[in-house]
Amino acid sequence: MRRWVKVLGGVALVVAALGLWKREEVTRLMAVNSLFAPDKIVQNFSQMDRLFLTRPLSRGDGPVSPLPNGPEAALPPEVADWVAARNVTALVVLKDGALVHESYYLGTGPEDLRISWSVAKSFLSALFGVVLAEGKIASLDDPVTRYAPALVGSAYDGASIHDVLTMSSGVGFNEDYLDFWSDINRMGRVLALGGSMDGFAADMKERAAEPGVRMHYVSIDTHVLGMVIRGATGEDIPELLDRHILSPMGMEAAPYYLTDGEGVSFVLGGMNVTTRDYARFGQMMLQGGQWQGRQIVPRDWAMQSTVPQAKDGSGYGYQWWIADGAGPGEFNAQGIYGQYIWIDRSRNVVIAVNAADLGFEDAGVSEGNMALFRKIAAAVSD
Length: 382
Fold this sequence. Notes:
Layout: H1 2-21, H2 23-33, H3 41-45, E1 54-56, H4 78-85, E2 88-95, E3 98-104, E4 114-115, H5 119-133, H6 161-165, H7 183-192, H8 197-202, H9 220-233, H10 237-249, E5 256-258, E6 271-273, H11 275-286, E7 290-291, E8 294-295, H12 299-304, E9 330-335, E10 339-344, E11 349-355, H13 365-381
Helix pairs in contact: 5-9, 5-10
């Protein structure tokens, strides 16, 4: 018995020593495990820099671009119930480029830098369009391994850039956020413990389908798209995004990215931005990539990336969603737990939403959100 007490005591000392040696990693891992706890999720989503490794982005030295106030819109009465049911923290509505509604909830405010989750994918798409137009990437038909040779021998070997842009890589990847052992949650732990996202992507070996056959949403595809951009340009994503997108837009606050242990940005979901700046980005894309008299994203790319592009006919563009029932010119960026930039070019309306919605995967929630956005757009357009 005494022997076992000594053994257990020794184990406890080892664990304690490891805890001291890896204190930051353990702290981040604990943060991941409680990131979506009901009593912490709202605060966490506005303070991700306290929980993870981060890298600052620059908004440049220019003035903040104007976001003029328009006549305050009367929103549909069901919006109040929706805000409560979906745990909404911010709602910003633009009509004709003017701010017609802005509200914040659950103790958050307009200065909060809010986690984008997969809304970040659409920012990366805009940057990709710039890099493509500059000739740094020859063709969407190029294999991803041409620019990201670390992926040779992985499940991405044989996939084209077009396949990855349209979430049609065929890579076997479990995106179940509620399964502790899913690939998406294993990836989160790699991020928290300071591991390598490039290494995680290169270690993907299983395929669920041949490349290009069907659209199947897997977030790691977007990291691979970032690897392609880095390989094609020889620059990091933050440098490129600062120069080509953020600085020209005159955003009101400098964003930041979550990063892995090698300083590589978590481009598939780690951008943190104010809600008004999400709306600015949406308005720029509504205007075909043009902002304040300057063409920031090539117009052809802004238009092509926001219509269906997956070869199986799915409602997915180049890292943008086109929802079922979408009218002409309607598309959106979308992230887990209720993050949206919803755009309707026909009505010239942009809706930016941040939330901490624990029920975001429940049946009918996404469809209900789309229906409400369309009602808001109609109300502010009357």
